[in-house]
Amino acid sequence: MTLAGFALYKNPRSPLNRTFAAFLACLVLWSLENIVTQSPDTPQDIARLFDNIGSIGWISFSGFYLWLILIFTEKKKILKTKILYLLLFGLPLVLLYKNWAAHAIIKDLVRQPYGWSFIYANSVWTYLYFSYYMAVILIALYLLVQYGKSAHETNRKKQVAVMFFTTIASLILGTINDVVLPELNIHTIPPMGNITALIWAGGMIFAMERYKLLVITPTVAADEIISRMSDSLVLLDAKGNIAAANNATLRLLGYTQHEIAGEPIALLLGEKTPDKTEKEPLLWKGLVKDYETSYRTKTGALVPVILSCSVVRSSEGGTMGVVMVAHDISERKKTQDAVLKEKNISAAIINSLPGIFYLFDDKGNFLQWNKNFETITGYAKEEIREMKPLDIFGEEDKQRIRDAIQQAFFKGKVSMEADLMTKSGEKVSYLFSGETFDIEGVQYLLGTGLDINQRMKKEKELERINMKLEGSEKALVNILSDLKYSHEELQNTQAQLIQSAKLASLGKLIADIAHEINNPLMIILGRAQLSLMEDITNEELKNNLHIIMNQCDRAKGIIQRLLMFSKQTKGEVKNTDINQCIEFTVQLIEHQFSLKNVKIIRQYEPLLPSLRIDEKRMHEIFLNLLNNAQEAMPNGGAITITTSSEKNTIRIDFKDAGVGIPKENIAKIFDPFFTTKEKGTGLGLSICYSIIKAYGGEMRHESKPGEGTTAIILLPIEEGTV
Question: What is the CATH number of domain 229-334?
Answer without folding.
Answer: 3.30.450.20
